[in-house]
Write a structure and sequence with these properties.
Layout (H helix, E strand, L loop, with lengths): L13 E2 L5 E7 L5 E8 L6 E5 L6 E6 L5 E7 L4 E7 L8 E2 L9 E8 L2 E8 L7 E6 L10 E4 L6 E8 L2 E8 L2 E8 L5 E2 L7 E7 L7 E8 L2 E9 L5 E6 L11 E9 L5 E9 L9 E5 L16 H4 L4 E5 L9 H5 L7 H16 L8 E6 L1 H12 L6 E5 L5 H5 L11 H4 L5 H10 L12 E7 L7 H14 L6 E6 L10 H19 L3
Parallel strand pairs: 23-24, 23-25, 25-26, 26-27, 27-28
Antiparallel strand pairs: 1-2, 2-3, 3-4, 5-6, 6-7, 7-8, 9-10, 10-11, 11-12, 13-14, 14-15, 15-16, 17-18, 18-19, 19-20, 21-22, 22-24
Helix pairs in contact: 3-4
Length: about 525
C-alpha cells in the first residue's frame, strides 16, 4: 500500500467485501471519533461519508458477524443510533436502522436464525437491562418490525451478543458475575460452567461465522488468564492456552471468595477477595481497590505483580460499588449523577465489612483507585479518613467541579451524562458537595501517594497538583503525602512493560512501608 496523508485517524479500519474499499474514522480536536471516511485503493483521497456534530456521540464502524453488512454506530453514554450498509455495495449510502431517541440504546448485528438471514438488535426499549430483538433482513427493518427473541429481565443484564451460523451466545451479568448462555439451534440452551467463585469471562473470538466453536477468555484473582475453546453444540471446553507464571505457582494455594457488605441504605455490595490459603481465618494486611463509574464492571483479574502482595501475606480485594455495571444497568444508574454519593457509601461499607469480619484492621488497610476511582479515593478520604492506613490515587479525577465547568477540555461535554452539567445551579451544588478538591478539611488524613501524567488528556495533571497542594495546607497530620508526576505519561501511565513494573513496584513499596510489611 502507498502511504497516504490521512491525518487525525483513530486507528480503526473496516474493509468492504470488495477488498478495495476501506472505511476509517477521524478524530476531532477533543480526540472524539466524529467523521467516517471512505477510501478506495488506487485513489489519492478519501470521501467523507458521515459526520457527527453532537459532541456527546462517538462514531464507530464495524463489520457485522455475518460479514455481509457494515454497521456505523453513533453512541453517547445514554443514547445510540445505527446506520447499516450492504458490505457488497460500499459506494452506496448508509441507511438508518432506527433514528436516535434520547435514552434509547441499541446495538445491531446480522446473522442467521433457523437458516434465515436476520437482524439481531440488543435494545433497552423494554427495560434498562436490555432485551434481544430480531427482524427480517431482506430490507432494512423499521423499529416496528422488531420482534422479541429474549425478553428483558429485572435481575439479569444482557451485556452482549455473539453470533455464529448455528448458535447465538448471550453475555449476561447476574449476581455481579459475568455469565455466557449459549443457545444452539435445535438444542437446549445452557450456561458455561466455571471453576472459581469470582472471575472474569468474555467471548474473545467467535472465529469464522460458520464455525461450531468460539473462544473464551477466562481468569480469576487466583488463576492466570486462559483461552478456552467452547464447542457450541455440546458445551465441552478445552483450555488452549494459559498465561505462564514463572517460578513455583499453584492456583489452589490461594482462596478466591465472593463476600457481601451492606451499605447504610441496606443495599448489598459485592466484594471479590483473594488471599493465601494458609492465611484463611487470620487477620492480615489488605489492599482494597475500587472504581465505580461509567457502568464499567471491575471483574476479577489475575496479576503477576500482585503475587508480591499475596506472598507477603497481604490480601487483595475489589469493592464492586454502585456506579459500576456489576449488577446491571440499575447498579450503574444508582451511582451516577444525583446518586453519586452511593459509590462512596458502598466503598466505606466494604471496608467496614472486611474489618468487622476480621479479614483486616484499620491500621492494616490500604486503598487504591485511579481516574474516576481516584475521585472515589478523594471522596472517601474526606468522609472517613480514620478508616484507612494509607491510600493510592492514580491520575485522580479530584477537581471534578472545575473540570466540568470547562467545556474546552477534552471529553468534558461527553461527561455531562455521567456527572451532570455544573452550569446548572442544582448540578453545581451537587458536585460541589462531594468533589474531593472542594471538600478537603482541616483533619488528619492517611498516608497518600498521588500519581499524575503530564500528557494525560483525560484527567489533566494539575488536578492532582491542586489537590495535593490543598491537602498540604489543610491536613493536621504528619503522614506521608507524595506526588509523582510522570513527565512522559498519559492517562494509562508510562508505556513499556518494564516501566509499568517499576510503577507497580513504587506503589507496593509505599504500601509495604505504611503497613509494616517485610
Amino acid at each position: 500500500l502507498t502511504a497516504l496523508p490521512f491525518d487525525d485517524c483513530d486507528g480503526s479500519m473496516t474493509w468492504a467485501n470488495d477488498s478495495q474499499t476501506l472505511f476509517f474514522a477521524e478524530l476531532d480536536d477533543t480526540h472524539r471519533p466524529w467523521r467516517l471516511r471512505r477510501h478506495t485503493l488506487g485513489e489519492t483521497d478519501a470521501a467523507t461519508v458521515f459526520e457527527e456534530p453532537d459532541g456527546r456521540f462517538f462514531l464507530h464502524c464495524y463489520r457485522a458477524s455475518s460479514e455481509r453488512q457494515l454497521v456505523l454506530l453513533l453512541n453517547s453514554k445514554t443514547t445510540s443510533e445505527a446506520w447499516v450498509l450492504d458490505a457488497a455495495t460500499p459506494q452506496a449510502d448508509f441507511t438508518c436502522l432506527a433514528p436516535r431517541v434520547e435514552g434509547h440504546e441499541y446495538f445491531p448485528d446480522h446473522g442467521q436464525l433457523d437458516g434465515q438471514w436476520r437482524w439481531f438488535v440488543r435494545s433497552n426499549q423494554d427495560g434498562i437491562n436490555f432485551a434481544l430483538f430480531h427482524a427480517p433482513a431482506d430490507s432494512v427493518p423499521t423499529r416496528a418490525q422488531w420482534q422479541v427473541l429474549v425478553q428483558h429481565r429485572d435481575d439479569v443484564m444482557l451485556e452482549g451478543l455473539s453470533l455464529n451460523a448455528t448458535a447465538l451466545s448471550l453475555s449476561l451479568r447476574e449476581g455481579g458475575l459475568p455469565i455466557i448462555e449459549v443457545h444452539p439451534q435445535g438444542l437446549p440452551a445452557y450456561r458455561v460452567e466455571l471453576p472459581d467463585a469470582a472471575y472474569s469471562l468474555y467471548v474473545q473470538d467467535s472465529l469464522e461465522f460458520a464455525s461450531t466453536r468460539i473462544r473464551l477468555r477466562y481468569e480469576a484473582l487466583n488463576r492466570p488468564a486462559q483461552v478456552r475453546q467452547l464447542d457450541l453444540a455440546t458445551g465441552a471446553q478445552q483450555v488452549l492456552k494459559q498465561t505462564p507464571v514463572l517460578g513455583a505457582f499453584d492456583a489452589d494455594d490461594y482462596i478466591s471468595q465472593r463476600l457481601w457488605a451492606v451499605a447504610k441504605d441496606g443495599t448489598r455490595v459485592p466484594i471479590s477477595l483473594v488471599r493465601r490459603r494458609v492465611d484463611e481465618g487470620k487477620t492480615v494486611p489488605l489492599y482494597l481497590y475500587g472504581y465505580g463509574a461509567y457502568g464499567e464492571s471491575l471483574d476479577p483479574w489475575f496479576s503477576h505483580a500482585r503475587l508480591s502482595l499475596l506472598e507477603r501475606g497481604v490480601a487483595f480485594a475489589i469493592a464492586h460499588v454502585r456506579g459500576g455495571g456489576e449488577l446491571g444497568e440499575a447498579w450503574y444508574r444508582a451511582g451516577k449523577q444525583e446518586h453519586k454519593h452511593n459509590s462512596f457509601d458502598d466503598f466505606i461499607a466494604c471496608a467496614e465489612h472486611l474489618i468487622a469480619e476480621g479479614v483486616t484492621t484499620r491500621e492494616r488497610l490500604a486503598i487504591s483507585g485511579g481516574s474516576a476511582g481516584g475521585l472515589l479515593m478523594g471522596a472517601v478520604l474526606n468522609l472517613r479518613p480514620e478508616l484507612f492506613r494509607c491510600a493510592i490515587a492514580e491520575v485522580p479525577f479530584v477537581d471534578v467541579l472545575n473540570t466540568m465547568l470547562d467545556p474546552e477540555l477534552p471529553l468534558t461535554v461527553t461527561e455531562y451524562d455521567e456527572w451532570g452539567n455544573p452550569e446548572e445551579p442544582e448540578v453545581y451544588e451537587r458536585i460541589k458537595a462531594y468533589a474531593p478538591y472542594e471538600n478537603v478539611k482541616a483533619q488528619a488524613y492517611p498516608a497518600l501517594l498521588v500519581v499524575a501524567g503530564y500528557n494525560d488528556s483525560r484527567v489533566q495533571y494539575w488536578e492532582a497538583a491542586k489537590w495535593v497542594a490543598r491537602l498540604r495546607t489543610r491536613k493536621t497530620d504528619d503522614n506521608l503525602l507524595l506526588l509523582k508526576t510522570e513527565m512522559g505519561a498519559g492517562h494509562g501511565g508510562m508505556s513499556g512493560r518494564y516501566q509499568g513494573l517499576r510503577d507497580v513496584a513504587l506503589e507496593y513499596a509505599f504500601v509495604f512501608n505504611e503497613l509494616g510489611v517485610a
